[in-house]
Fold each of these.
Amino acid sequence: MYCWFLCWMINEAPFSTAKKLILTDNIKNISELLETIPKTVLAKAMKTSPKRFNGLIENPQLFTFQDAYIIADLIGVSKEKILNIIHSTCEAS
């Protein structure tokens, strides 16, 4: 069932748009990602509370590998791409 959910999320408009933008290196940080996928949508898809997700956005160094891997699976990109996006966000803050 979880696989079906992931397949559905990848085809959801903001997720497929984010995938295209990430693969063409047009999304380089979390802020740019959240311009494509609303944070409420991403938090819900990650099955995390809005409060926790807001904390991650405010303090990106608190993202775990598990968070990054979930986001990568939801969008359909490599884990390394999401880790680099999170890393770039941490360096900028």
Amino acid sequence: MKDYKIIKIISPNIGQITSVINQLFSLYSKEDIYQEFTDNELIIYLRQLDILDFKKNIQKKFPMRKPLYC
């Protein structure tokens, strides 16, 4: 696990996004990125990821109705 960057997100609403996160992360190898959930925490283990591909998949799977900056 020393090769992984660990990102922790704490929120009381983590349960509401587990299916979305699982759906997105299933597109990638578990050796590159995987996650664990607790009651109020999402822990992401990130080793390597093509960030432009990741962004493209987010935009394709979860298109925004209008930009955040509007």
